[in-house]
Amino acid sequence: MKQPRIHPQALCETAHVGAGTRVWAFAHVLPGARIGADCNICDGVFVENDVVVGDRVTVKCGVQLWDGVTIEDDVFVGPNATFTNDPFPRSWVRPATFARTVVRAGASIGANSTILPGVEIGAGAMVGAGAVVTRPVPPNAIVVGNPARVSGYTAVARKPATPAESDGTPRPGRTELGVGGASLHELRLFRDPRGELSVGEFGRELPFTPRRFFLVSGVPGHEVRGEHAHRSCEQFLVCARGSCRVLLDDGHDRREVTLDRPSLGVHMPAMIWGTQYRYSPDAVLLVFASDHYDPDDYVGAYEEFRKLAAGRAARG
Fold first, then answer.
1. What is the pTM of this model?
2. Which stretches make up the Sugar 3,4-ketoisomerase QdtA cupin domain (predicted)?
3. Active site members
4. Spatial contact of 202 and 210, defined as CB atoms under 8 Å apart
């Protein structure tokens, strides 16, 4: 088994350092810290006692990991990223407990970013350089700025090109998105001097007969909605006014579409993690649902969703 490599000029006081981990010069790791295997703890890093670092984590120079911080597997922490653990710090005043900050597996923290206490960075997320993270970051989200806001999502494919008529009007039809049975629908569109009319018939062009609908409007452009899946309920989304982006995730693949006209809709079957963001100021999102409201049908935690999705895939 590979042994950890501790630089002679590092001060590593913990016995809990995994195989193959390297701790470089001038790093200081306190006795209570736990560091996993194959990590790279670079020059000048400080790790306090109540800290857990998973496997294959890279912590670049100038980072301090304070009490209450947990870093899961395969995380990258960029140079001089700053973690905090006390929302109201005072000299010589120690809280009874420190806020818990968690960076989930596969996330990346950009150089010089600041992470406020008690925040969770979702699995696969990416925090841009210099961002100030004041609230939880959704899984796979890219956040930038001060305060950090969602600007996009990692590893998503964009919607396929839509066939058009000779006058440039999108041609009615259905396009499979390759994500858990989700599909993009160009509805029939009629134009005359009185205006435009778009239409779709449930049970014919559209995949189910709805039992419920709701409208989402007045969403600030920096806010994110959705961020859940349904165990059995299907949904059909149309942006009746303005535009918004829709991210669809089946636990393995992700695809993003932009709904920017009333004649374009997306069918989201059950067990698709759906996220809507980048609403235009005038956006009105119309959602048809196949079932009545049932709070038990919601899956609100991404890790739970991934486990459920993996179990369904294994059962075929």
1. 0.85
2. 183-308
3. 228
4. yes
